Fold this protein.
Amino acid sequence: MIEHRTAPRRVGLAAALCAMVLLPVAPAHAVPLPEQFAGRTEVAFPADNSDDGGVQASYVSFEDPLPAAAGPRPPQCDRLGYTRFRAANGPGNSEESASVFVTMPGYLEGAGSAEPLARNTVRAAGERGQYVEVWVLDRRANCLEDHRGLFAAADRQDPNLAFGYYGRGQEIDGVRHSPAASVDTAFLGNVGLKQTLEDQFTVMQQLSPNYRKTRTMCGGHSLGGLTTGAFANWDFDGTPGYDQCAGYFVLDSRMDVADSTFAALSGLVGGALPGNLAATVQPLNNALPYIPLSEATFTMLSSMLSAASIDPGAASTILPNIQQDLVARLGARAVSAPNYLDFLLGQPDLRTRSYSNSAAVGLVLDDNSMPIGFGRVSIGSFDSPTAPKQFPLPYGSGAAFAGILGGNKSVAPAAGNSAVGWTTYDQVPRAGSETVDGDVFTTKESEVTDISQFSRTWSNAVVDGLEWYFPTRLLTETLASNTGDRTGDLVNLRYDVTPQSKVIYVDAGETGFAAGLDSLGTTSVGAGTRVDAPGYNHLDLVTAAWNQNNGRPEVVSHSLIDFLNEQVISAD
């Protein structure tokens, strides 16, 4: 059994760090909590040192054991947790706030992914003289993550320590990292859509029924938008999910749970899918309880983010070693190879050129490098000569495969031996960054996320931005629900009242997931409010900085507060 990252008192080094930065805060509830919230704790985690905007951040958790049928699991997995953001000068009682935004993260995202959005939303409300809270749910699978390396790196301010622990077998306080054992991960085969929605409902029961129905905003990013639709249509032992929310917010996603979106992906496949799709693929969920290779991929990515947070300009020690691992090697080729031939030949060789820690993160995740649409974030550009890429799609291609690939001008550092650094989002030239051929591939207006804040929040040792052990069952059941499957655990998805009003959709204006869903067929935007976020890519919806290059307010957070006031609580 491994140790839980949110119980640092058990892991030696982390205890010392937590003694410095994890402080008790005021309780979040208005009335005495029922027994189901036994063992509730709330601890503050470090502020955004660049500009916290008067926002207090904390991690809340309480005991909530899984059913015995879930099987053996580490004890920390019998707790639920979420991040809570509120104004430092605001009320400690959540129900004295104008609203609580209950937020479900996206596919492969941990609760830390939405920290910038949460801070921005609290600040946007403050500009209007209001107090709101944002709760970001930490899905149960995150209990399996080993954050010892992230804690140690932050404590010692060593940019190489996390990768040494996760990627090179180095010990910390006599402990060597290893992925969670199969005996510890098997229970994830029972953590699907039903358990995830029940966990959300349990967290929300800290608020009174009337407050939930009249004041609470329910929503999510990416996959979190789809699960929000499922929540609204779910039956919780006679209590409809749509009675638990005053309004909804959907970030670069849709709320569909009808036989429409995914079944329309292919007319041939859609018509051939079994009516009990979830049960049909359950043996796969049991055999592969979490997304394969995700743990190895995300420990390396977390190490890169940690290094960029601690020493952004130092030379990366990760890229020179990344090609020792086959999966990492292929991933590195996908973001750096200029064409198919070089991809096959393994060129450029990342071991022979120096990248700064920030440039390494940019190479992997920036919207002009990352080929996969839902993994893109607009964090700046390379500070060295840059060349167009023709892999995996030609330079400048439009989005393909329902927005999964393409849609941006993909570039990589031009051939040479010079060190590669990074230009932050707010330092990109006003005229834009050009390739060696003189073509503008990005502009200042299309760069919206601060790589420093992004790296810090996504590698936060208390609650990070990645979900290392994403349950396969949650993904397959979400897809099955969209093909009309209402059997087995999906039987509680019994309503067909996907909200058409009091819903705000904020879509990525550059490349994103929502446009791909719309391309598959009719989606449920309906009478909802739709806002485009210019320059934003998929991840930017939750990571964009408070200060934007165009001089205008950050669009997502301000749109949410405007919508709350104008369409949800305006009658009060």
Remarks:
- The longest helix spans residues 294-310.
- The chain has 20 helices and 17 strands.
- The two ends are 50 Å apart (CA to CA).
